[in-house]
Amino acid sequence: MKIPISKPYFDDEEEKIIIKPLQSGWVVQGPFVKEFEEKFSAYTKIPYAVASSNCTTALHLGLIALGIKRGDKVIVPSFTYVASANAIEYVGATPIFCDIDLRSFNLDIQKLEDIVVNNNDIKAIMPVHLFGLCANMPKIMELAKEYKLKVIEDCACGFDSWIGTKHGGSFGDCGCFSFHPRKAISTGEGGMLVTGIQTLAEKVRCLRDHGASKSDLERHLQEGGSLLPNFNILGYNYRLTDMQGALGVTQMNKAQKIMQARRKIAQWYNEALADFPLLLLPQTPENFKHSYQSYVVLFSPSYEGLTLEMIAKYNKKRNIFMQKLESLGISTRQGTHAVHTLKYYCDKYYFKEDDYLTSLAADRLSISLPLYPQMSESEFDYLINSFKKVFG
């Protein structure tokens, strides 16, 4: 049996709707993108949603729209996908890495506070809602308010992630989502910036479309559309196609069904793996709602007291465990990487591996397990029996 790490949930609805832009001839950003934005805004309860070509471009546009520029410093967790830090680099700002809490894989609030208090030139914080669990946004927003910092939430993994009644992305100035095939909602590639600030949304709409004062759709629907709009600012071609927008519409129509299935499988894991040695399972704080974009465990005897030597020891064991699962047809991945260990950032900022020890531990010891809404009970049983076989 072959068990992939993930796969998008597409059915006949996607097959039917993808033909419509082809039939209409409107394949660039158009009516389906607009409908997708409206549905996403309604689901997340965030007033404004602006689609983009992917989450990285959404982060880039958000940073520009918030005025983050060359020479500024932006705090970002070291344990995240490289795109988070890259977006900061794109605007010429400097990423200031912060270590994480291994229990949540998100920003360590005490370490974040230490950075903010001891640096007068921090301009923004980019918390990441990793694997579908929101960072501690109430605490982060307290710090941001006290020190007058902008907050751009990296919600790449955070669709249907909540703290109380507030969706991830609704706490800071803006939040940015991904629709990559490994995400809960997928349009192949694609992103979305959400915000409660109307002027920010308007600026991002302009920036994503070369800086145009009016979109093609707006021109098409109004008289005088044969004339090109004005271009008052330098913009980018970060638009989403209407074919992707059409997929987004169908994905939003079945979002609740998809998310219920993902959480059901996560619960299967919670019950089946509760007594497995060396597997520390995802934790969800009270009043938080995890969306399980990925089900990520830590291959470690403990969260505490990890040294470089221990990390190296259990990293070897983790890698053997993952290789044995792969030989049985089961795909796994490390959770993500510690960005400060990647060559570009090492070379530019002279980092050492143990500069952010907890992020290093997460990099070397995390395992993302297969999770997709279509997973059957027989597939899951095979997966767990394979775990038992490998563990002996």
TrEMBL record:
Keywords: Aminotransferase, Pyridoxal phosphate, Transferase
Active site: K183
GO molecular function: pyridoxal phosphate binding; transaminase activity
GO BP annotations listed: polysaccharide biosynthetic process
Positions of post-translational N6-(pyridoxal phosphate)lysine modification: K183
The keyword Transport is assigned to this record: no
SUPFAM superfamilies given in the database record: PLP-dependent transferases (SSF53383)
Xref: PANTHER family: DTDP-4-AMINO-4,6-DIDEOXYGALACTOSE TRANSAMINASE (PTHR30244:SF34), TRANSAMINASE (PTHR30244)
Matches recorded under InterPro entries: DegT/StrS_aminotransferase (IPR000653), PyrdxlP-dep_Trfase (IPR015424), PyrdxlP-dep_Trfase_major (IPR015421), PyrdxlP-dep_Trfase_small (IPR015422)
Methyltransferase as UniProt keyword: no
Family: Belongs to the DegT/DnrJ/EryC1 family.
Name of the protein in its database record: DegT/DnrJ/EryC1/StrS aminotransferase family protein
Pfam families tied to this protein: DegT_DnrJ_EryC1 (PF01041)
